[in-house]
Each structure stands twice: as C-alpha cells, then as structure tokens.
Amino acid sequence: MESQKIRVSRKFSFEMAHALYNYQGPCKNIHGHTYCFCVTLRGFPNHTQGCSDDGMVIDFGNIKRIVREKIIDKFDHALVLNHNAPLSSSKEIKDECEKLIVLPFQPTCENLLSYFVSLLRQEFKNGPELISARLDETTNAYAEWYLSDNQD
User: Fold this and answer.
1) What is the strand order of the sheet 100-103 is part of?
2) CA nearest 30: which of 21, 39, 38?
3) How far is CA 150 from the centre of its chain?
4) Does the residue 49 lie in any domain?
5) Tally of domains within the chain
6) CATH number of domain containing 109
C-alpha cells in the first residue's frame, strides 16, 4: 500500500475554574468552564506487518495517555490563577482548594492553549508531529494553534 501522511485527532474534556487578574469584566471573578481540548497529529501509518500498531499513525490510547498525564489530570477540577493575583497567595484559598494551579501568566484560553501545546510538543517530538490544537472554553468560543502559523 502507498504510504501517505494522515492526520489523527483526539478530543478531551475537563472542568476548570479560573479568574483573570486585573481584567475589567465579569471574568475577573472566579468562574468555571467545561473545556474541550482537541489535538491533531500528522504522520505516516506504520505498515510493519505483525506489529501491534500496524496501520496506525499512533495508537489513540497513547495520545490519550500523554494528554491525560500532561494536562487533563492536572487541570481537571482545578482553580487556575495568575501568580500576580492576590487570591493566588491567599491562605484560605490554599487551605480550601485541593487543586490550585498558580501560573506565571494570565489563564486565558489563548495562553492556556499555548502552554498546553508547549507541553505536548516535547512529548511528540520523536513521533507523529503535533500540527494543531484547539481549546474550546465555551460551546461558541475557542482558541486554535497551528504548527504552520508558528514556523519560520
């Protein structure tokens, strides 16, 4: 069979709360979203007969394992705050919140997506290429990342 590059994608969802520090709008308040995160990889299917991943660019289970370890398990049901926000160092918040993530940047959809991509590019650097990612913050608002937009 002729080998052709194929794109494979995997979707994930998780619940997360955040607040935008110094923002002049309702998102300055702690609030939550059901995020949908989708990654797309590109590569050639393995055509080694007898191999367990014969015919696959990558096993969907491997994508699931990597994304869960690097992103979903950490951010699901977490409160994410900018390190400059006074709440990020609040003893009460730290005592009451089992999963508080304090980041050195504003936890916007765009910044979170960029951060997630940086984590995943390290994981996929020797296998299929991460070519796009999308983070839906709501059903009608999302940010997208494309490798083609970020190459020299």
Assistant:
1) 100-103, 78-82, 6-18, 31-43, 129-138, 141-146
2) 21
3) 17
4) yes
5) 1
6) 3.30.479.10
In-domain check, residue 137: yes
In a domain, 73, yes or no: yes
The 10s digit of each residue's pLDDT in 48-77 is 888 888 889 999 999 999 999 999 999 999
Structural domain includes residue 82: yes
Give the domain range for residue 33.
6-150
C-alpha torsion sign, points 69, 72, 73, 79: positive
Tokens of 73: 């398990």
Phi, psi (degrees; rounded to nearest 5) at 101 = -115, 120
Tokens representing 148 are 């083609």
The tokens of 30 are what?
Answer: 């702690």
* Full DSSP string of 67-118: HIIIIIHHHTTEEEEETTSGGGG-HHHHHH-SSEEEESS---HHHHHHHHHH
Q: pLDDT tens digit string along 90-103?
A: 777 777 888 999 99
